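My current task is to audit a protein record that another person submitted. What it holds is a sequence and that sequence's fold in token form. Thanks in advance; the entry in question is below.
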Amino acid sequence: MIEIATSSTTTTLVIAGDLDLAERDQFPEIAARVVGLRRQLLVIDMCRVTFMDSTGAAFLISLADSGRKRGGATVLRGADERDLFVLEVCGALDLFRVDSEHKCESTTPASGVPQVPLPQRHRPK
């Protein structure tokens, strides 16, 4: 699932679940919406991404490339080491600013019973 939120200067994509070949049908529509918003900063929140393959990486790369062509920037927030590795193997990690300070939130269900927290995602050092 991918949600889009905007402010006057920023578009934020919040991605949950897999970002892979099985999800590719929604990528063109989302990319068109993000590009159409024409914000200078794109923040991609990956705290809840469970898996990303090269198809998902190509989607993120296309978003970053479109923004860069307009003079904008793309920030990856909550990307884990695996996600960053995929982008690095694709030769595209330099298209992104990596927010290594962001701490992903854990979730607690409405019942109040704590769940296992989501792993903290960060840029490898």
